[in-house]
């Protein structure tokens, strides 16, 4: 024998490319909102969202 049955890998074509970038940390960030959220500490919080996968992150300054 020695015949290896390959696994079936579903390949969602074009979409996978964008997600591959995302999984490497290359998100396509867009600013969703910018507001002085933590007024007490005087920090401005910016909310980002990836246009491809919808992942979100917040950044404080
Ligand atoms: Zn992403």
What does this entry show, briefly?
The protein has about 60 residues and is an alpha+beta fold.
Bound molecules: zinc ion
User: What kind of assembly state do the chains in view correspond to?
Assistant: single chain
User: Quick one: overall form?
Assistant: rod-shaped
Q: In which range does the helix fraction lie?
A: 10-25%
| Overall pLDDT confidence | 79
Structural class: alpha+beta
Number of helices: 1
The succession of helices and strands, N to C, reads HEEE
Strand order of the largest sheet: 1-2-3
| Number of extended strands | 3
Beta percentage is 35-45%
CA-to-CA gap between the ends?
Answer: 61 Å
Major sheet summary line: 3 strands, antiparallel
Regions with little confidence, pLDDT below 50 for 5+ residues: none
List keywords for this structure.
single chain; about 60 residues; alpha+beta; 3-stranded antiparallel β-sheet; 1 helix; 3 strands; about 20% helix; rod-shaped; binds zinc ion
């Amino acid at each position: 024998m020695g015949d290896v049955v390959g696994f079936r890998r579903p390949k969602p074509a074009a979409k996978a490319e964008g997600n591959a970038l995302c999984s490497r940390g290359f998100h396509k960030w867009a600013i969703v909102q910018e507001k002085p959220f933590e007024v007490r500490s005087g920090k401005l919080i910016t909310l980002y969202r990836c246009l491809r996968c919808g992942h979100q992150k917040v950044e404080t300054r």
